[in-house]
């Protein structure tokens, strides 16, 4: 962001993204039953000599409290970043992380499974035909993306609204 917008606007934009992410997380947390902590309702059995560990139990309770007050989102954002060039199936990653981050994994499942476009990919190439030719199906993803962008720009330039079949 700093290279694109300069340092001041980059900070503002990152704060905007984080604020939006936190708001979305809070919405999911409100609607999620899995975000509630698991609390044991059975009383501890006490006997003679159990007070030996009272100081330790008090200490461990104090140490874990700040961790519990931080959200799953905060804990996830504090984790070290993964390697940029590693192969990663994002949905599989979040499925595997569902025990650590139950609310975040639900968020990821919902957000990452949204289709990029509601228009069939075949109709992106022409207004008339609905098929992709063998030459077009061999295009690299970056080329397809460039063609779709070019088509959008041309439509905007000439004020053409796409025809959607019912």
Structural description of this entry:
One of its GO terms (molecular function) is protein dimerization activity. Pfam families: Dimer_Tnp_hAT. 55% of the residues lie in helices and 0% in strands. It is mainly α and 166 residues long. Among the domains are: 1-33 and 87-114, no CATH class; 118-160. 4% of the residues are buried. Residues 34-47 have low confidence and may be disordered.
SSE inventory with pairings:
Layout: H1 2-5, H2 7-31, H3 54-69, H4 72-78, H5 90-96, H6 102-112, H7 134-137, H8 141-157
Helix pairs in contact: 2-6, 5-6
| Mean pLDDT across residues | 73
Radius of gyration: 25 Å
**Percent range of helical residues:** 40-55%
| Broad shape | extended
The stretches of 5 or more residues where confidence is low (pLDDT under 50) are 34-47
Summarize the main sheet: none
Quick gist of this model?
This protein has 166 residues and is an all-alpha fold.
Keywords summarizing the entry:
single chain; 166 residues; mainly alpha; 8 helices; protein dimerization activity; HATC_C_dom; RNaseH-like_sf; HAT C-terminal dimerisation domain-containing protein
């Amino acid at each position: 962001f700093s290279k694109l917008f300069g340092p001041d606007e980059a900070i503002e934009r990152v704060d905007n993204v984080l604020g939006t992410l936190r708001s979305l997380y809070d919405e999911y947390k409100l609607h999620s039953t899995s975000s509630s902590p698991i609390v044991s309702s059975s009383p501890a059995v006490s006997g003679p000599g159990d007070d030996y560990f009272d100081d330790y139990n008090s200490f461990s309770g104090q140490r874990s409290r700040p961790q519990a007050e931080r959200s799953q989102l905060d804990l996830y954002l504090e984790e070290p970043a993964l390697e940029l060039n590693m192969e990663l199936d994002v949905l599989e990653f979040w499925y595997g992380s569902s025990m650590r981050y139950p609310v975040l994994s639900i968020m990821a499942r919902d957000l990452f499974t949204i289709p990029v476009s509601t228009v069939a990919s075949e109709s992106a190439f022409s207004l008339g035909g609905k098929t992709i030719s063998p030459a077009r199906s061999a295009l690299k993803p970056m080329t397809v993306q460039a063609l779709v962008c070019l088509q959008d720009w041309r439509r905007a330039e000439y004020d053409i609204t796409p025809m959607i079949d019912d």
